[in-house]
């Protein structure tokens, strides 16, 4: 079976466009991924790799059976379930508002975007500071201003309450990102479609749900997928606010657990296994999301 | 008359909501700002004040005056700029291939690139270090740049593919009929029409390179070549965190990213695509 | 199009000018000096093979001028996490060393404290480990167990003399399975800090025994305005001084079992003391997480007493210049003796070093009186027992050196961080009322035993 010249030509053209990305991706992502994948099947010795012992699926099984891992998986899942929809909805609201005919658009955009461009480390420290159990802004507001509570809440000392600042932080930091991308998506929707609909007598709400949302589909799909991946991979804010699972290893995310295994206990094999368990889940979820939400957009 | 009123009410609601949201967004920054202006002794004072009783610039002077702050700043600027430009070209080309070209293994390749976005970057650092070492890319800005571009390819390509797919094919079909090659179509048609998408890629790639820490920390040891996030990390002492200085340095390092954002967000021009469709 | 480009270029130039301005403002000396070092270190080394992590740098700097020395200098890398002041002083120490050893050049790299272990591991995994490093004492047995560190006893010149000149506690942190894998470079311990104002206001006396301590802690507590005592957290380092002073032990001397030790009567008594004080409200709730730090709380009078280390002197000087800090020995336990916990860093040589003799010479110099006294100037406590009472040392060192005579090291075992975690969790469970102190420590003992096997 010979390839037609047309097909060859197609491949050739495609190759030109793909090559630069592929040349970078192979050594810096594909090979490292294969390397860590291999490690996950060993009791890896960092200093003398040749002495590493093959353990097959043991690292994976140990992780799955570990109650701390299970709790971490729960925590991570909750984080995604709470922060992703919140960011999408709030981001969409902000984008729609910003898309109106208002003054100082640029100023608003910049200010809303500020949380996105601040580093995770700084923002985590900031929220830790604000949610301090003894001298924090939040407690001050709740207790002395709003009189909703009568005692200081020790946010960071409680395995459940400590997630309040962590979730809020994730949402606060991400809304600007979602807003910016949704805004770009909104810009790509031609005005005349709205005008035509208005002429036909459609109300703003109808226009929103029948025009805006469907046409935003590719953008929204992109956001959901990326935000979910990001949420499942979150770890810096957790690491800084809970110091790695405190109290009592009940507040881990999957990646903070992996971090502890790899860099805390020097158990690279276990860390790699945990990463791949997460990657597997993330991959499946992303594919499902893309298939479910993707539809061709016709004008 | 009522239409005008309706529009006015809409405007008032819009502004109110936006400002309300803005307060929530800005309060933490305000807190950071006033803390950076306080001497350490007042960092934990209660009740928190809206404006510090004692204002000092000591934190800024000390943080910025530290030996290498300016140098790290420049290094970060250099690395971030080159990374951004390179990423734009590499990922838009790849995105075009996915959006418009047909070739065997296309879906498979797409998922491979997607997979790269899903593995925790932290896990890749050690093997990446080994590869970089073999390629003799350590202790060089090139090493940082190449890895940063790579880490951004997946996401930016995914984003751009979405944008490219949204561009109506009429223009390209017309150009194809006129005998233009794919290369020409890419540069002369698709690229210019994707300004919003490219702008977004610019903003995010610059941000990523500007604040990346784990790779920069191990790939470059030479003090003169280090980047800004490392300078800020060094403020966190083992025994006491000098909050004022951390926040002062962080606020200063926000400036370039804000500038990039302000410059490029102007490109969300509505309705570019429609003008080509009419008539 | 033109407009956008113009603005872009303008903004870029503004940023560049701004940063050049910052560079100029920064201490120009250091920048220049470091450039000098860089040039020096890139001399192509012929016979003595350069270390792997130097190779990359060499290739990059092949255009640099060659040295015209008769002997080719050997380059030793040294990784550390020193503070600003210490890093500056380190340059002087290196200068002194290089003067006495013209054939050796030391190249230091400073890392951020929180990410240092990661950096070392990355280096190890890729064959790019340094020759030497100053690492946390708790890591030595861990890295030694992995085969990453070079054994020093029987290999290094004068090792026995050097070892004998150091404090026993710090030295013991280098010991693993019959051999020594490092030397104590600097040490520290924790002592009692007491706030003059709080004590004088209540006319209270500084406690010398644990009973007095418990009493005073509650005496000086009033609601949420003031706490008699505060701990930094529940990780072992925090309660360790009281734990050791009251006779507590984690494991037996041979490190074979924890049963009867971590859950033995003295250990239980120590933790019970703390849990009771907490339940009475005499200990600040910050130890459970997310409160005001001990350093800040102590200086503002919120915490009348804390237990902390010598670094507090410089920290308070820099951040609370009006605060007068007072030190006292850890109160004595039932048998009338005080104790505390040993901290600090050890200097180690990595197994893959291409220049082990030079590396060991550097280590020996770090343990010389000359080097130790130089670092003492910036607040680093020496490990040489012979320096006790030396007039060149800062005055406040006295109490720490005194405490060091009885301070104990934590368990030098590769699984220490997991053991720490077990004790940490036990303390938490007891504080939260989920278990009694005995139950909590029994569970910790079982977990630690698992780790020892």
Describe the structure.
The complex is a heterotrimer of chains A (299), B (279) and C (453). Chain A has 299 residues and is mostly helical. Helix content of chain A is 72%, strand content 1%. In chain A, helix 10 (217-232) packs antiparallel against helix 13. Chain B has 279 residues and is mainly α. Chain B contains 13 helices and no strands. The model of chain B is unreliable at 268-279 (pLDDT under 50). Chain C has two domains: 76-186 and 346-392, Periplasmic binding protein-like II (D-Maltodextrin-Binding Protein, domain 2, 3-Layer(aba) Sandwich), CATH 3.40.190.10; 191-340 and 415-452, 3-Layer(aba) Sandwich (D-Maltodextrin-Binding Protein, domain 2). Chain C has a five-stranded mixed beta sheet with strand order 2-1-3-11-6. A four-stranded mixed beta sheet of chain C has the order 8-9-7-10. Chain C has a two-stranded antiparallel sheet with strand order 4-5. Chain C is globular. Classes of the chains: A mainly alpha (299), B mainly alpha (279), C alpha/beta (453). At the A-B interface, helix 1, helix 3, helix 4, helix 5 and helix 6 of A face helix 1, helix 3, helix 4, helix 5 and helix 6 of B.
User: What is the class of chain A in the CATH system?
Assistant: Mainly Alpha
Describe the global form of chain C.
Answer: globular
Per DSSP, the total helix count of chain A is 13
User: What percent strand of chain C?
Assistant: 5-15%
- Under the CATH scheme, which architecture of chain A would be assigned? Orthogonal Bundle
What's the gist of this structure?
Chain A has 299 residues and is mostly helical.
List keywords for this structure.
heterotrimer; A: 299 residues; mainly alpha; two-stranded antiparallel ribbon; 13 helices; 72% helix; 1% strand; C: 453 residues; alpha/beta; D-Maltodextrin-Binding Protein, domain 2; 2 domains; five-stranded mixed β-sheet; four-stranded mixed β-sheet; 45% helix; globular
Write the layout of secondary structure elements.
The complex is a heterotrimer of chains A (299), B (279) and C (453).
Chain A lengths: L4 H35 L2 E2 L9 E2 L3 H8 L1 H32 L6 H13 L2 H11 L6 H9 L17 H25 L3 H9 L4 H12 L1 H16 L3 H7 L11 H11 L3 H26 L6
Antiparallel strand pairs in A: 1-2
Helix pairs in contact in A: 2-13, 3-7, 3-10, 4-7, 5-7, 5-11, 7-10, 10-13, 12-13
Chain B lengths: L1 H35 L21 H8 L3 H32 L5 H13 L2 H14 L6 H26 L3 H8 L4 H12 L1 H17 L2 H6 L8 H6 L9 H22 L7 H6 L2
Chain C lengths: L1 H24 L2 H14 L10 H9 L13 E7 L3 H17 L3 E7 L5 H10 L6 E5 H9 L13 H6 L3 H5 L2 E2 L2 E2 L2 E7 L1 E4 L1 H6 L8 H10 L7 E4 L9 H6 L19 H15 L14 H6 L3 E6 L2 H9 L7 E2 L13 E8 L6 H11 L2 H8 L20 H8 L11 H16 L5 H16 L1
Parallel strand pairs in C: 1-2, 1-3, 8-9
Antiparallel strand pairs in C: 3-11, 4-5, 6-11, 7-9, 7-10
Helix pairs in contact in C: 18-19
């Amino acid at each position: 079976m010979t390839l037609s010249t047309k097909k060859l030509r197609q491949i050739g053209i495609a190759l030109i466009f793909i090559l630069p990305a592929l040349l970078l991706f192979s050594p810096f992502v594909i090979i490292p991924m294969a390397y860590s994948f291999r490690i996950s099947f060993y009791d890896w010795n960092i200093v003398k790799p040749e002495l590493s012992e093959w353990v097959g699926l043991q690292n994976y099984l140990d992780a799955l059976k570990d109650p701390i891992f299970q709790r971490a998986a729960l925590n991570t899942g909750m984080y995604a379930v709470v922060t992703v929809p919140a960011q999408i909805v709030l981001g969409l609201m902000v984008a729609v508002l910003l898309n109106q005919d208002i003054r100082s658009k640029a100023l608003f955009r910049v200010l809303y975007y500020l949380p996105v461009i601040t580093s995770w480390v700084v923002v985590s420290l900031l929220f830790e500071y604000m949610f301090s159990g003894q001298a924090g802004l939040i407690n001050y507001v709740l207790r002395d201003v709003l009189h909703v509570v009568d005692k200081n809440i020790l946010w960071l000392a409680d395995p459940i309450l400590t997630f309040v600042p962590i979730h809020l932080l994730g949402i606060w930091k991400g809304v600007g990102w979602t807003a910016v991308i949704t805004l770009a998506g909104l810009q790509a929707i031609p005005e005349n479609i709205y005008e035509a609909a208005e002429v036909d007598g459609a109300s703003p709400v109808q226009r929103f749900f029948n025009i805006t949302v469907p046409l935003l589909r590719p953008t929204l799909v992109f956001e959901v997928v990326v935000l979910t991946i990001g949420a499942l991979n979150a770890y810096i804010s957790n690491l800084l606010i809970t110091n790695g699972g405190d109290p009592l290893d009940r507040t881990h995310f999957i990646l903070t657990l992996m971090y502890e295994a790899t860099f805390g206990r020097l158990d690279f094999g276990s860390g790699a296994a945990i990463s791949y368990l997460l990657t597997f889940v993330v991959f499946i979820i992303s594919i499902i999301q893309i298939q479910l939400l993707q539809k061709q957009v016709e004008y | 008359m009522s239409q005008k009123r309706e529009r006015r009410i809409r405007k008032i609601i819009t502004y109110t909501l936006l400002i309300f949201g803005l307060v929530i967004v800005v309060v933490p920054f305000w807190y950071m700002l006033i803390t950076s202006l306080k001497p350490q002794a007042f960092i934990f004072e209660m009740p928190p004040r809206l404006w510090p009783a004692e204002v000092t610039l000591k934190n800024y002077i000390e943080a910025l005056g530290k030996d290498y702050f300016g140098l790290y700043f420049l290094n970060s600027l250099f690395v971030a700029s080159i990374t951004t430009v390179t990423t734009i070209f590499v990922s838009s080309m790849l995105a075009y291939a996915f959006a418009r070209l047909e070739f065997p293994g296309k879906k498979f390749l797409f998922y491979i690139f997607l997979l790269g976005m899903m593995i925790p970057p932290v896990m890749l650092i050690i093997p990446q270090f080994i590869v970089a070492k073999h390629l003799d890319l350590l202790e060089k800005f090139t090493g940082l740049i190449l890895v940063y571009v790579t880490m951004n390819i997946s996401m930016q390509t995914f984003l751009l593919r979405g944008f490219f797919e949204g561009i109506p094919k009429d223009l390209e079909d017309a150009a194809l009929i006129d005998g233009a090659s794919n290369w020409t179509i890419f540069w002369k048609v698709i690229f210019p029409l994707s300004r919003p998408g490219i702008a977004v890629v610019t903003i995010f790639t610059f941000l990523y390179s500007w604040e990346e820490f784990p790779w920069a920390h191990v790939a470059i040891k030479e003090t003169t070549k280090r980047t800004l996030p490392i300078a800020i990390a060094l403020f966190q002492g083992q025994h006491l965190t000098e909050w004022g200085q951390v926040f002062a340095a962080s606020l200063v390092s926000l400036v370039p990213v804000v500038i990039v954002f302000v410059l490029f967000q102007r490109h969300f021009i509505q309705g570019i695509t429609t003008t080509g469709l009419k008539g | 199009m033109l407009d956008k480009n113009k603005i872009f270029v303008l903004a870029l130039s503004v940023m560049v000018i701004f940063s050049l301005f910052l560079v100029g403002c920064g201490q120009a000396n250091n920048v220049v000096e470091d450039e000098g070092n860089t040039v020096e270190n890139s001399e192509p080394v012929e016979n003595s093979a350069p270390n792997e992590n130097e190779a990359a740098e060499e290739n990059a700097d092949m255009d640099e001028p060659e040295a015209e020395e008769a002997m080719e200098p050997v380059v030793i890398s040294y990784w550390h996490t020193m503070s600003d002041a210490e890093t500056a002083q380190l340059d002087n120490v290196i200068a002194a060393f290089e003067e006495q050893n013209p054939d050796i050049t030391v190249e230091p790299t400073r890392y951020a404290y929180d990410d240092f272990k990661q950096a070392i591991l990355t280096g190890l995994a890729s064959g790019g480990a340094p020759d030497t490093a100053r690492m946390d004492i708790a890591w030595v047995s861990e890295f030694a167990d992995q085969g990453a560190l070079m054994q020093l006893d029987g290999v290094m010149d004068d090792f026995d003399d050097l070892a004998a000149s150091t404090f026993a506690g710090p030295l013991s942190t280098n010991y693993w399975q019959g051999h020594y894998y490092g030397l104590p470079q600097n040490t520290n311990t924790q002592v009692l800090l007491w706030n003059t104002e709080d004590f004088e206001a209540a006319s209270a006396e500084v406690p010398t025994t644990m009973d007095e301590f418990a009493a005073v802690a509650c005496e000086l507590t009033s609601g949420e305005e003031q706490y008699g005592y505060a701990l930094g957290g529940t990780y072992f380092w925090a309660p360790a001084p009281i734990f050791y002073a009251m006779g507590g032990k984690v494991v037996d001397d041979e490190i074979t079992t924890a049963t009867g030790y971590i859950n033995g009567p003295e250990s239980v008594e120590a933790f019970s003391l703390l849990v009771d004080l907490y339940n009475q409200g005499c200990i600040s709730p910050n130890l459970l997480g997310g409160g005001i730090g001990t350093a800040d709380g102590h200086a503002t009078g919120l915490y009348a007493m804390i237990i902390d280390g010598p670094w507090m002197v410089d920290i308070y000087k820099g951040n609370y210049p009006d605060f007068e800090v007072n030190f006292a020995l850890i109160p004595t336990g039932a048998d009338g003796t005080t104790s505390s916990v040993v901290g600090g860093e050890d200097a180690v040589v990595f197994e893959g070093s291409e220049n082990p003799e030079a590396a060991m010479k550097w280590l020996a110099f770090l343990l010389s009186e000359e080097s130790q006294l130089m670092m003492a100037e910036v607040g680093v406590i020496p490990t040489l027992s012979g320096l006790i009472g030396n007039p060149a040392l800062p005055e406040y060192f006295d109490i720490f050196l005194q405490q060091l005579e009885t301070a104990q090291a934590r368990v030098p075992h590769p699984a220490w961080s997991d053991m720490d975690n077990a004790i940490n969790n036990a303390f938490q469970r007891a504080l939260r009322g989920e278990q009694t102190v005995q139950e909590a420590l029994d569970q910790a003992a079982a977990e630690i035993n698992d780790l020892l096997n």
